[in-house]
Specification:
The chain is mostly beta strands. Helix content is about 0%, strand content about 40%.
Length: about 425
């Protein structure tokens, strides 16, 4: 399935496989899942959390929901562990159309404890915004809109932001720009207050470049940016839209940024990379594709730089219909200290998985949790996972839970 660059991937419907297919050959796993919080209603509380979570230094969790809240534009929330067990939710902000709606990306902190994020829609042009939430001394949080997109400078920022060492923000928009195929942008704080946006790259229609970058960015040690686009690349592959690319942006000495395409997906090696990439300690890149692969249910892949230049892709895992490992991974991956990878799949009802490297041969996948078809433990985890200091995993499901409005969960070994 392909997505138009002006659409948001969450709104598209993934193929749901039958329960009987998923139940065949399910594996036993030594993991316990606990629902920490079930979102209650679209008016009082948030609904449909599609973004991942972050911790603060005190062990509180922060996240967003893409809908719900007083104006049904989504919320920012905090979950605080209580001394007697359980977690308490505090609603930090209700989004309205003027300051953005549909926050679909994870938040980030700055050194002062302010939260930064994006909204996919809303603002004067309904093209999304970048916002900052600052804690007030007497309690509560103040929201400031740092930038609203107008289409020409990008539209529909779906991914999380990143900082550079100087405090500038970087991100992507899934649409807009000079070719209406998405952008990479930078936001720089101005000395007199406010922020200035600069478009670093406009994705184009030259038949090689990508389009619709739903994924966020990462830096390498030299200050180069890396990302992926869900569509584009070789337009003869995967229908009329292309299967997506992995790209690098390098700052030029005279100003500007130069794009280099590191890999163009063709379908059998993956299709639709929605999630941000990660590095290992050796400088190799890892990511997921939501479809494609040997069974067209998505992949986990690795990109390794070659000594003579260029990058080589290797598919570490093809998701299939054996009922054990789920389908359609749309989340970023994380490493543990031993070099194992962790992530989630969306279909049929979702899984949390671990991929373990073998000394020789392919990586081995273990399902840590298989979400149930009735949704009581959550369903459709679009976002990735995070660790706490004890090695427990935390994430969100966009649906299910006690009120079928989404949930926050913990998986404990």
């Amino acid at each position: 399935m392909k997505f138009n660059a002006w659409s948001i991937g969450l709104k598209a419907t993934l193929t749901i496989l039958t329960l009987a297919l998923f139940a065949t050959g399910t594996c036993a796993v030594a993991q316990d899942e606990t629902l920490l919080y079930s979102f209650e209603s679209h008016l009082k509380d948030g609904k449909t959390p599609t973004a991942g979570l972050i911790f603060d230094g005190s062990g509180n969790l922060y996240g967003t929901t893409s809908t719900g809240g007083a104006d049904n534009g989504g919320i920012v929330f905090e979950l605080t562990p209580t001394s007697g067990g359980g977690w308490t939710e505090t609603l930090l902000h209700n989004f309205k159309r003027k300051d953005g709606t549909d926050p679909g990306a994870a938040l980030i902190f700055d050194a002062a404890g302010d939260l930064y994020g994006t909204t996919t829609y809303g603002g004067p042009s309904n093209s999304g915004s970048v916002f900052r939430l600052t804690p007030k001394t007497g309690g509560g949080w103040t929201n400031a809109v740092l930038h609203t997109f107008n289409g020409n400078d990008g539209a529909y920022p779906y991914a999380a932001l990143i900082f550079d060492a100087a405090g500038n923000l970087y991100g992507t928009t899934a649409g807009g720009g000079s070719h209406n195929l998405g952008t990479v942008f930078e936001l720089t704080p101005k000395s007199g207050g406010g922020w200035k946006e600069k478009v670093l790259h406009n994705f184009n229609t030259n038949g090689k470049d990508g389009s619709a970058p739903f994924a966020g960015l990462i830096f390498d040690a030299a200050g180069n940016l890396y990302g992926a686009t869900t569509q584009g690349g070789n337009l003869t592959e995967c229908g009329d839209f292309g299967c997506g690319i992995v790209f690098e942006l390098t700052p030029s000495t005279g100003g500007g940024w130069k794009e280099k395409i590191l890999h163009t997906f063709s379908g059998p090696d993956g299709n639709e990379p929605f999630a941000s990439l990660i590095f290992d300690t050796a400088g190799n890149l890892y990511g997921t594709t939501a479809s494609g692969g040997a069974d067209n249910h998505g992949t986990v892949f690795e990109l390794t730089s070659k000594s003579g230049g260029g990058w080589k892709e290797k598919v570490l895992h093809n998701f299939n219909t054996n009922g054990k490992d789920g389908n359609n991974p749309r989340s970023s991956l994380i490493f543990d200290a031993a070099g194992n990878l962790y992530g989630t799949t969306v279909s049929p009802y979702g899984t949390a998985f671990e991929l373990m490297p073998e000394a020789r041969g392919p990586w081995t996948l273990k399902a840590l949790h298989i979400f149930d078809f009735n949704g009581t433990d959550g369903v459709d985890p679009y976002a990735g996972l995070i660790f706490d200091a004890a090695g427990n995993l935390y994430g969100t499901t966009s649906g299910g839970g006690a009120h079928d409005s989404g949930a926050v969960f913990e998986i404990t070994p």
